[in-house]
Recover the amino acids of this structure.
């Protein structure tokens, strides 16, 4: 699904402030963050993963990230655990 400009700008502000707090000076400016989250056909990818360990126990979660026409990992948005047996 395509990423809206409002959502991209919201995430850009958060990541810019987080970067600035961590490094005292942001590595990228807000516009660079915003452009990387919106330009170049950015899509939001949501995928369900099931891991099974050697004891046949499952860990199932959903992960979200952004990709664009050039990169498969523009931003990792997080994950939610659906079930965990180990």
């Amino acid at each position: 699904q395509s990423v809206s400009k409002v959502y991209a700008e919201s995430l850009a502000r958060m990541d810019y402030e987080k970067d600035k707090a961590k490094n005292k000076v942001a590595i990228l400016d807000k516009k660079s963050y915003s452009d990387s989250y919106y330009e170049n056909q950015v899509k939001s990818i949501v995928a369900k993963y099931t891991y099974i360990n050697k004891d046949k126990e499952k860990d199932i979660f959903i992960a979200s990230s952004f990709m664009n026409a050039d990169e498969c990992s523009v931003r990792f948005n997080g994950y939610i655990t659906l079930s965990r047996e180990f």
Residues 5-23 form the longest helix (19 residues).
